[in-house]
Structures are given as C-alpha cells and as structure tokens.
Amino acid sequence: MTTSIEAPPDPSLPAAPSGVARDGQGSDFARLSRRISEAGLLRRRPGYYTLRFSLIGLAFVATWTAFFALGDSWWQLGVAVLLGLVFGQGALVAHDLAHRQVFSKRRPSEIGGMIVGNVGIGMSYGWWMNKHTRHHANPNHEELDPDVSPDILVWSQDQARASKGLPRFMGRHQAKLFFPLLTLEGFNLHISSVRALRAPHMKKRLLEGGLLLAHIAGYLTALFMVMPVGMAFAFLFLHQAVFGVYLGSIFAPNHKGMPMLKGNARPDFLRKQVLTSRNVRGGWFVDNAMGGLNYQIEHHLFPNMPSPHLGQAQVIVRDYCAEIDVPYHETGLIESWREALRHLDEVGAPIREGDSEPDRVAA
C-alpha cells in the first residue's frame, strides 16, 4: 500500500534529514547539482528543439490539411485520433517551454507557451503554469499539491474517509473508472482554462482569454463547416478522448502510487522529489512518446534541464541515490500503470468498507 509521510515521517521510509552531505560539501542536492552541471547537462539544446518544434508543427499542419482534404467522410475519425496525439505532443512542448528548457528567459518562453498552449491546443498557459509550479514545489503533498487534491477522484485513504458526494461515489471503483474518465480529460483542460480566467493569479487574462477564444472559435468552425453535425460531434469527442487518454497515460505513472506527504512533513529537496516520483523505462519509443517525462525523478530535481539530457542525467542521479541510500524507483510502462491503478484501488478501500459496514452489523 502507498505510504503516507506525515509529521513525524513514517519510519518505514528513510528519515528526512537536513540534507547535509556526508563529505561536508553542502547539501546532498548541492553535491548532485555540481555533478550534473560539470557534465554539461543544463546547457540549452537549440538544435534539438528546432527539430522537435518543426516536426510537431509539420504534423499539426499535415493533420489539419488531411482534415480539410477529406471533408465529409467517416475517414475523419482516423484524423481525429492522429490530431489527439498531435495535441498531446503539443502539450509536452508547452510543458518544456513553461520550464524554460527551451529559452532561458521568461518572455520568449511565455510567448511560445501561449502560441502552443492557448492557440494551438486550447489550454491556458497561465493556468497550467500556476498549477504545475505548485505541484513541483510540493509533489504528492495532500494539502499543497493541486494534482492530488480530491476532486472527482481521491488520492489517499484519509481523503476517501472524508469524501462526500461525487468523489465518494466514484471512489468506490475509481481504479476501474480511471482510464474511462481520462476520455474526458481533454474537455476538462479546456474548461479549467476558461474558468481560470477569473482567478487572481492570471496576470494576462484578456490576452489569454482572447487566444483561447480564437482557438475555440476556429476549431468549432472548422468542424461544423466541413462535416455534417453528427460527424462533427463524433470527431470532437474522439479527438478530445484520445488527447485526454494520451496525456493521462503520460502523467499518471509519474507520481500516483508513490509515497504521499501531508501535514508538516518536510523532507529535504532531494528526498522530497525522488521519493515521490517514479521513472518509466522503455527506450527510444517511450522517451519520445512521453516527451522525456518518463525520467520524472531527474525532471523534478532539475526542471529546467532540456529533455534530451534527462536520460544522461539518470545515470548520475541513480548512482548518487545509491551512494546516499535514497530509494530510486523505476519500472516499465505497463507496470507503472498497474502500480497507479493498484494505488487507486487501495485508496478507495475505506469507502467500500464503509458501504459494507451495515451488512456486517446485521450479520
């Protein structure tokens, strides 16, 4: 069962020390950071990102060209699947831009993020940036990480016990419902982006709102201008379903089922990031399909590291974690999904047990 780290920390996990390195050369993370920097893994990769942006841009243009060329044809459902994958790759590029992996300065990163995010795929750059920054600061912390806040699903047994309404209803069988629910995640990203325009943290709400409106208007106009209403709706739902499942399949393995933090638990930076993250093996295909996020441990330790360097960094980080006795978890893609689903099933146990309590009393 997934461990929850409270204050004091769970004794089944390594203690959360001050992080002072054993050789007296500063914190454990500072020593690791020096090794990474000396290996040149924080330098920018303009050539790589130029090629990656070009390929995704060409895929985007080619898919929409095929869409307009096919017109009123049920072959459009194949285009919808392809476009869902292209949107997913676009989201991964927006992620790298937000972390300043592509440009070192804020302004070009923000401009690129809005072009790819708001205009290209209909996801607010400012909303996602705020949410993702809070996640990186406190991954898997029940009170501080927005990615594990109880919404439709619950992520810990304490959340399950306190759940009411829809989360309680869904939590009974959330492991079985997880992938079906991901078919709605694409819609959720668009709706959350629009709703966030009223949030105080949105500094450029008029600009972002205008760009989102341009995306939505252009997207819906294209669908209903080219295809009959029924086919347009079929395209819409299939496209967004593929987009949602693709993104969910990338992000769910990263932290779900790893130790949870709560209360005043404050491991040092290195342990907080390593203990709550999971790496996914798989070679060239997984590296590209997941945009480098399969190296989640390295990404959380060095979020502005260009994604093509993460694989090289893994060797250094994994060896260093062994050196300082910090558990380092990695597994295959399918097993990562199993671990995440197993966690969701265990989390829902208190709800199922509560539902069966009257039967046991009656017996």
UniProtKB/TrEMBL annotation:
Annotated transmembrane regions: 51-71, 77-98, 209-227, 233-252
Region span, Disordered: 1-26
Listed InterPro entries: FA_desaturase_dom, Fatty_acid_desaturase
Domain Fatty acid desaturase: 73-331
Record has Transmembrane helix as a keyword: yes
One Pfam family here: FA_desaturase
Record keywords: Membrane, Transmembrane, Transmembrane helix
Name of protein: Acyl-CoA desaturase
Taxonomic source organism: Streptomyces gossypii
